[in-house]
């Protein structure tokens, strides 16, 4: 069992930060790449190893961990557990959903955007072999507004598949507006929330999305190899994935190799053996998010990103994402003339960031503080020539 202490006060940020040992030797601002590792997660992973050493196999315990992750994800996004598939990657969930789509002549259009994480475009392009027609929307004046979606979503659109926050520049799409346009045209909406979940409040019912994808590598503070797909209740039984596996069947342990009998719940979007060690990780990671409280986390991130943007504006640096706080989340991007050189220069000052497509990505989470921001800007000032 985890030996970590409970967070004493939901807004006691220094106490929370102390549970992330990376800060003892690094200024870590790279949660958009890989969230920092907490002692809670470390202990939970050790528990998995201890359980295996002690008992060998313990399926009941493992199933419980898997179900705890499903329930925790459901709480995070205001869904019910039967609407959540626990997967090994975002790609696995998107593939299962795509495999259930009927791209017939009446409705075969798939609308995606330039803000898509590659997997959320490539999988849809792969559906061209099954009759899909893919339309990809680009930026206009540094953003992709809902109007750009309204121009292409029509009665032939089967699904609008978007990544809420762009992995490259941090821009955040207006999901409620896009969902409304899709709904008026009878199209499904799939949101890849991998770069936003854990930093924003996302109520699947309020947002009106049909599918929501996320994973534990980044702001959900877990590890690679565990992710999830939400499928709206009334769609679960209507959609029959053809990408499947034994853990997606109605009765897993019937071990019936004579037919396909998909689960009546969103488990039908799963596949093979669950990622058991990663479920230990995800369970502990979700617990930290819940203890800190999502509303408090959102507020904390807003304070931090506001401070980062103020400092960047004062220094005359250029943003890669829109400045408007409703159009970005935790990831702040700064235009760079040599983004790889800049990441390396910051790393030499023990500041961990990352880059994509001409942008330095600075991605704080609730565990960062204002001293981290001072350290970042002291270092950036030394490397001004690498900023656009
Ligand atoms: C927006 C977004 N979606 C998805 C992923 C990861 O997808 P997968 O779990 O299939 O590797 C990432 C990871 O970088 C991401 O940034």
Task: Describe the fold and architecture.
The protein has 388 residues and is of the alpha/beta class. It has 2 domains: 13-37 and 295-386, Aspartate Aminotransferase, domain 1 (Alpha-Beta Complex); 59-289, Aspartate Aminotransferase, domain 2 (3-Layer(aba) Sandwich), CATH 3.40.640.10. 37% of the residues lie in helices and 13% in strands. It has 13 helices and 12 strands. The chain has helices at residues 13-17, 39-55, 59-77, 90-99, 119-126, 146-150, 175-184, 204-207, 233-236, 276-292, 294-315, 339-348, 370-382; strands at 27-28, 84-87, 109-113, 133-137, 157-163, 188-192, 211-215, 227-231, 332-335, 351-352, 354-356, 359-362. The strands form 3 sheets. Strands 2-8-7-6-5-3-4 form a 7-stranded mixed beta sheet, with helices on both faces. It has a 3-stranded antiparallel beta sheet with strand order 9-12-11, with helices on one face. Strand 6, helix 8 and strand 7 form a beta-alpha-beta unit. Helix 11 (294-315) packs parallel to helix 13. The longest helix is centred in the C-terminal third of the chain and has 22 residues, at 294-315. The chain is globular, with a radius of gyration of 21 Å. Residues 1-9 have low confidence and may be disordered. The chain binds pyridoxal-5'-phosphate. Residues 89-91, 117, 119, 163, 167, 192, 194-195, 215, 227 line the site of pyridoxal-5'-phosphate (PLP). Pyridoxal-5'-phosphate (PLP) binds at residues 89-91, 117, 119, 163, 167, 192, 194-195, 215, 227.
